[in-house]
Amino acid sequence: MAGDRVRLDQPKGRRRSWRPSWDPEEFGHASERIARFIGTGRFLIWMTAFITVWVLWNTTVPERLRFDEFPFIFLTLMLSLQASYAAPLILLAQNRQDDRDRVNLEQDRKQNERSIADTEYLTREVAALRAGLGEVATRDWIRSEFEDLVRELAERGVFPPESEERDR
């Protein structure tokens, strides 16, 4: 009786479904691999070789071994079937790429906003440093002020003139 009790502090276990299930991510990866392969020269070469062998087989071998006579209706059916599956797979791969591009674009936009904010902050800091340096006494300014002070004191007679100091 205690084992039949429903526990509210734990999630329910997964129920088995009679419907097939698949991982949408894995399906998307598979469609991208197929679309990537369809868009290669290797696929074109293999498809050309396949069609060439098909046509040569059905035109050159004895009639009893042929399986698709001249209008090649079965070949047309096979190519139509391949195209009907290829188009949605390519569109699915493009949609997934668009989603990735959208995410990358958003991340780039945010990074650019951070870079602009950092640049503006650094610009303000440099401007503050320049303003602060305008108020800082430099070595040359202090030296010129001391020279002016010594000259003024020498004129008042407090210090001997510079020429007398050098003679000593």
Can you walk through the features of this model?
The chain is built from 5 helices and no strands. It is an all-alpha fold and 168 residues long. Residues 1-12 have a biased composition (Basic and acidic residues). The chain crosses the membrane at residues 43-60, 72-92. It comes from Streptomyces pactum. This is DUF1003 domain-containing protein.
Count every helix, treating DSSP H or I runs of 4 or more residues as helices. 5
Assembly state (oligomeric): single chain
Fraction of residues in helix: over 70%
Number of strands: 0
- Class per helix and strand makeup: mainly alpha
Tell me about the largest β-sheet: none
Question: Alpha-carbon distance between the termini?
Answer: 116 Å
Instruction: Give the overall silhouette.
Output: elongated
Radius of gyration, in angstroms, nearest whole number = 43 Å
Element pattern in H and E: HHHHH
Describe what is shown at a glance:
73% of the residues lie in helices and 0% in strands. The protein is mainly α.
Outline the secondary-structure elements.
Layout: H1 24-38, H2 41-60, H3 73-135, H4 139-156, H5 162-167
Helix pairs in contact: 1-3
